[in-house]
Task: structure prediction
Amino acid sequence: MSSVASDAYSITERRAFFLLCVAAFGTAFSLPLGRAAAVLSLLLLVVDCIRSRRRLAFPPVAWGWVAFFAVAVLASAFGVDPARSFGKLDKLLWFLVIPLSATLVRTREREAHLMRAFAAGAGLLAFEIVVCRPLQVWFAIRDAEGGGDAFRMIRDLGSMTDGQMLMLGILALVGVIASTWRAGGVGRGHRVAEGALLVLLLLGLVINLKRGSWICTLAVVGLFFVSRLKIRYLLLLGVFAAGMLLLPPVWSRFSDLRHEFDTTRGGRATMWTRIAPPLVKAHPFGMGYRALTETRMQELARQQHIHVELDRDHLHSNPVQILVSLGWIGLGVYVLWMAGGLAGGLRRVASAPRGSPGRAILLSQLLMLTGLILNGLVEYNFGDGELVLLYAVLLGIVGVRAETDPSL
Result:
């Protein structure tokens, strides 16, 4: 960041941005830390805005959140269990981070700082997966009388949330590396550290054993290299993917994909084709936000004489879950909201000079949002507190109009 740009920021505003970086860092491995830092950052920014008599940035994509929240309130008020729904609506309030990040992250330097902070937090998560989880499994097997299945135990410890965090961390770091290394001024030690962090994130992604995050990571990172015409790196990504498939646990997980389309197994296919349709038919304007319960799902399953997974109160898909919860209007608002975010990101990338260092970070942020949306097709990540914060940060950044961004 230039000295001129730095002088334009007050001490309070700089502290707010630092806390936003802490929020991005902490969200990867500790939701309470991420949320606390985000709240403090927002409070400091509001104080700074009052003192300097300026407004928070409220990009068009933030109005998408307002519309979505309004539909959620109405659907919940007229839904099947208003008390339960209103008790869950507070999760949507974390999208207040959209104007926070839109106001604070307006230069390429700040974008790089924020992405580095998040990648570092994802690195801590990866360390826990790569080092601590195998040790946890080893101790469990050692202490068990009959031994145990190490592969199954590691698979059960993994989560889709962790997989998506690692996917986002990889993209954030790849964008930073492509931007800052090419621009120069990055020492050898710095490059070694970031290279080691990238390897750690990739190992964590593999050991987490979640297919959805594998597929989305390969897709969005591949798009990054294709968009930048980096064919040699695309080939390297292909070699990495092929190497993954040679690992027996990975091949076993991919082999199980064929069962996901079996509507008799009680998984996603059953939920999407047998549980969701009667709910949508009965409640075209939605049941209410998070009004669906495990009890209701099991009742529908018994009525149709089918099996559905136990301990599930969601339908493993953002569009399907939103359709059931908020009806066709809610789904339409959601689609327009996410489309607006992607369109904003595309405008920013298109407006950046081709080959400029800043373009790589803009592209990585757009693909981070794309990865979340893609993963949301097969996971209800809109109901995940950690990922909601990251949705908000990314929507705020890509929501800033390109022509007002000083980094371009």
